[in-house]
Amino acid sequence: MLLPTKFRRFLEDTGLITRFAGHYFSQGVKPRLELAELIRQCYIIGYSSLGLVALTGFIMGLVLTMQLRPALVNYGVASQLPVMVGIAIVREIGPVITALIFAGKIASSVGAELGSMKVTEQIDAMEVSGTNPFKYLVVTRVAASTLMLPILVLVGDAISLGGAFIGVNIKGVTSLHLFFRQILDNLSFGDVLPAFIKTWFFGFAVGVVGCYKGYTSSKGTEGVGRAANSAVVLSSILIFIIDLIVVQVTDVMGLN
Amino acid sequence: MENVIVIEHLCKRFGSNIVLDEFSLTVGKEENVVVMGKSGAGKSVLIKCIIGLLKPDSGKLLVFDQNIPELDHEELDRVRARVGFLFQSNALYDSMTVRKNLEFPLRRHWIRITQKEVDDMVTEVLENVGLAETVDKLPEELSGGMRKRIALARTLILKPEIILYDEPTTGLDPVTGREISQLIVEMQKKYHTASIIISHDMHCVKLTADKVSLLMGGRCYAEGTYTQLEQSTDPKIKQFFE
Predict the structure, then answer these.
(1) Do B91 and A122 touch (CB under 8 A)?
(2) Which residues of A fall within a CB distance of 8 Å from B104?
């Protein structure tokens, strides 16, 4: 039976990305370690996303609190607002929204950067210069993306909770100490650990997809644009798929 | 004359498209060979096979007596340290200054090298191409001709014994094109390199070629000096010289 073309292409893409990810691991363990480039990429990928993550995190915390308040007031549990917002941010909204923002910024820029390097023969030039371009360009970017997203999520969560604190205080009075005490008292190991671990997978997915799309982009400027665009779309979808899998796994493990 | 490149019956196809079909060529030490042919004839594929960026399907491709398709990555890198490649698009790294562009191959191939030696070599090649003042500029700040010179400097910095030029004057105005052709000849004399030059630019061909090879239908259709081919009565050859 013939599969529809789009579905077949999706399956082919999935297979090729999986092979690309496998190549990442096989090349990553080989010398030489491109430490200077890894540090440079950590700085570029992490630092360049910080402002955006902070801004969206703050707004997300503030808006979420303001939206939740009326419903909780109706049920007479407005005092539980910090706990609800805190758990929602730490468990789900913080990691997923930050990862989506990260995908929009990093997957597109990495896809476009590697795509244009390919079009202008810079990747070939690197190979001729005695450098393994996969290791220098791909391994460092994927590793930087995997390492930086968890840190950005931690920062984003903290700023988001700061936004939530302001949101709580718009129509009420809660001290900072009480606000965080309420949240921390109700957060368990099962809330924090899976949420933190999945951010590594999100970061890895964003890095691999961005690099794959750029590194394998077809020649021409149109190909570069398409690489950047499809990197964002695919990595965003992958973030939700990974999230779904993590929820199932943590449920089976009794961590939910 | 000792041959530094020997190509015999080289074949390369992409799907059903046969690009190189039993192509043969030899390049002697300090010899400049120009490969001419129509667009899409397989000229760039040929030099990419020589540097190991593409793998031929069959045939012999010896560079310094080593068969390129059979080399592993480390052996290939050792050969590449002795072979320079000037890309048609220059392939300068956008994110790096001219200095970093020039240092990149040095740091990669010659790991044990001091900063003083690196600085001296960067200064020397930039002076050779007449662009010492651009050392801290980014490629985007340079004109097309200047970028070509910097790309040539990056190729020369490892003091290669062979240089492969992929259409070095394409996209340049006639005056700058002539300057680059002249620079190729000067650098060949200074560094005693052998070269394969892919070109359509007849001025460049006339100025640089010790030997011209005409690539048609994937094969070496004709070979000789510029004058010999220019005087040919074969219409297929004449069309290039008209």
Answers:
(1) yes
(2) 126, 129, 131
